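Incident review: delayed structure delivery

Summary: a single-chain prediction request sat in the queue longer than the usual turnaround. Root cause was a stuck worker, restarted by the on-call engineer. No data loss occurred. The affected request and its eventual output are reproduced below so the record is complete for anyone auditing the incident later.

Affected input:
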Amino acid sequence: MEMEYREHGRRGKVIIVLGLILAIAAGGAAFYLINAAQQTAGQGELQTVPVVVAARAIPARKPIEPDDLAVRQVPLDATNSEGVVAKPADLIGKVLAVTVLKDQMVTTNLVASSSGGTGFSILEPNETVGPDSVPWRAVSLTIPEDRAVGGLLQAGQTIDVFVTATVNVPLELTTAGKYYTDRSTKITYQDVVILARSGTFYVIRVSLAVAEEISHLQAAGNASFSAALRPEQDVRTIDASGLGSTTNLIITKYGLPIPETYPAGGGAFATLPPIQASPGPSESPAPAP
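Output delivered after worker restart:
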């Protein structure tokens, strides 16, 4: 009985020791999990950044106004960290491709690209569209290489465009002896940016009114274009009111000699007598009379 009692006592002590070990292990595990959870929560707070969101619904194809945007502190993760915008100024004036709902993040992929897959942008990087902004358009015109700086013009350069058109003078003015129908050339569009080029086709950036004029001149078929390359530093607009060239104006300005009728008076002139053929080797000259 005594041996059996001792055996039970030893088993009890072992069970108590194991219980203490398990309790300590459980406590350590709980402490570790709680500490890890707190660290994770702390890390989540560190990842919160300012993000631009819609303060109200913004319709598609409408320029973004300052009151359309607000800034919120948003925790970022792998699902929403791409394309975020931190400053409203980077979006003001831009146009959205889709409607954005209130409190939705306004990311860069929602902004409609002005290039539209063409490889160029009509607006400059910091240019916005507003009620009073210039309605810029891209329009193409054809310029042969011999009238386009030898075909060396490239996208990004600025040019001056000359228009050469046929001026039809009414018959009553023609018979008066002062005017006649001929071509006339003048610098028409200055400091024009080339957006793209394909062969002899040049895509340029102009206002809507100028785009209309160029479209009409090309469709009418009685005008042609030439281009002169501008230095990058020269952004001046020259007063062209006193410019313009015709053949007679150039003759008068530079004193080109005017061809005269020869001989004077326009009458017939005497021709030289015919040349007598010399005798051949087998022929003897005729005897003198």
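Verification: The CA atoms of residues 10 and 102 lie 72 Å apart.
Action items: add queue-age alerting; document worker restart procedure.
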